[in-house]
Amino acid sequence: EPEVTQTPSHQVTQMGQEVILRCVPISNHLYFYWYRQILGQKVEFLVSFYNNEISEKSEIFDDQFSVERPDGSNFTLKIRSTKLEDSAMYFCASSGGSYNEQFFGPGTRLTVL
Amino acid sequence: GNSVTQMEGPVTLSEEAFLTINCTYTATGYPSLFWYVQYPGEGLQLLLKATKADDKGSNKGFEATYRKETTSFHLEKGSVQVSDSAVYFCALPENQGGKLIFGQGTELSVKP
Known about the structure:
The complex is a heterodimer. Chain A is built from no helices and 11 strands. Chain A is mainly β. By secondary structure, chain B is mainly β. In chain B, strands 2, 5, 6, 10, 11 and 12 form a 6-stranded mixed sheet that branches. Chains A and B meet through strand 4, strand 5, strand 9 and strand 10 of A and strand 6 and strand 11 of B.
């Protein structure tokens, strides 16, 4: 069964450093998303991506964040200068578009020290 | 915009007990509705879905019925197991192809 994969599973970084979180969505999907979950809290939407551009972003997704689909398979989230409050689980998701069923990856736990 | 409200947890049950986790929503139109589950230390998995009013989604003994009269999508299971211990999230899309709006999650703990 096709699945969304994410790497790394856990990333530890120093405050101010850049991180890139990687995702491989399901191959025939058209919509791509990033969400985050701060420990013990709600799952929050960050950004959606369709047709090679951002279709929607939340207030959290400020200038420190960017997304890219550098080739036909990968979908990345970059945080330019990490802050302590960026520590969270980051989930990538993809969807075929109809009925909005989104398939989530296992997540990357980001720890900013 | 669309929104979803879940009953607060944690919910603690004994094995074989009946489970209900309430979820109500507000939405424009009739979007699909979802329950996702997050087992300890893992990511989000789609548990079940319903795509139109009166649909019943079911999976692994869990069921939820899309009720437009009461704008609800309550999750039920007749007999829970220890392995059902997880956090359950009700969710709906904000718009076609758009972000999912999640409830705050309900933690379920099942004791032997």
